[in-house]
Amino acid sequence: MLEVMDIAARLDDAARHAEATAQLDEPLSIADAYRVQAASLGRRYQRGERRIGIKMGFTSRAKMAQMGIDEMIWGRLTDAMLVEDGGAIRFADYVHPRVEPEIAFLLKAPLAGRVSPAAALAAVEAVAPALEIIDSRYLDFRFSLTDVIADNSSSSSLVVGPWASPATDLANLGMVLSLDGVARQIGSSAAILGHPLRSLVAAARLAASAGEPLETGDIVMAGGATAAEALAVCQHVRLEVQTLGRVEFRIGD
Ligand code: OOG
Ligand code: MG
Predict the structure, then answer these.
(1) Ligand approaching nearest to the C-alpha of 225
(2) Which ligand is nearest to the CA of 132?
(3) Domain-wise residue ranges, the chain
């Protein structure tokens, strides 16, 4: 569908040039919004980026309340989105970036379709504290459900901390997100669907139903446990997760 390719190009260009674009006025179905997302990722793959996994969105009440959307969404992650733990991003590469405290899973086996939490856990190689940098390509960071899905669910960058044993109990880990050493968001991993593993279960189902099942080596971001925080130049961002440890990055200009 021509319209799908056009919208995908507009959103991909907005991301590449770090320039906000207007909300979509074309009414899209959810299926078409995911088609736009797939098409915009297709442009990235053509430029040489490689798929490394998926991110889940709106898996916590805090995130749903902040953005006024109460349906779970997902987006694709590529190698170009990875920021080294302790590294830096350039503020100018983003439109209006925000950061959120998350948990990441690394898979050691494929995981597709309707799986039990036990089966999901059996496919996990490791878990890690992680920061997601989201950056809506829409003006004023405002969007409808289909807008944000088309925009790869605001996916922009991710920073993954040290990988830990999958035997780590993720049920209720304290999470503190600090900007320049000041705690700004305090939460628990329990905020993520009651248990972050449930987000992995949902990811397995959603990715498979899109014809792109989770594979060995994939990273799955479970979704923000708290509301996101807006970022500014020169900040230092750090997440401390009980038991799992810390992950951090700096923002240059
Ligand atoms: C959409 C992405 C949501 C999460 O972790 O809930 C998300 C947004 O808030 O812009 O990444
Ligand atoms: Mg997120």
Answers:
(1) 1
(2) 2
(3) 2-252
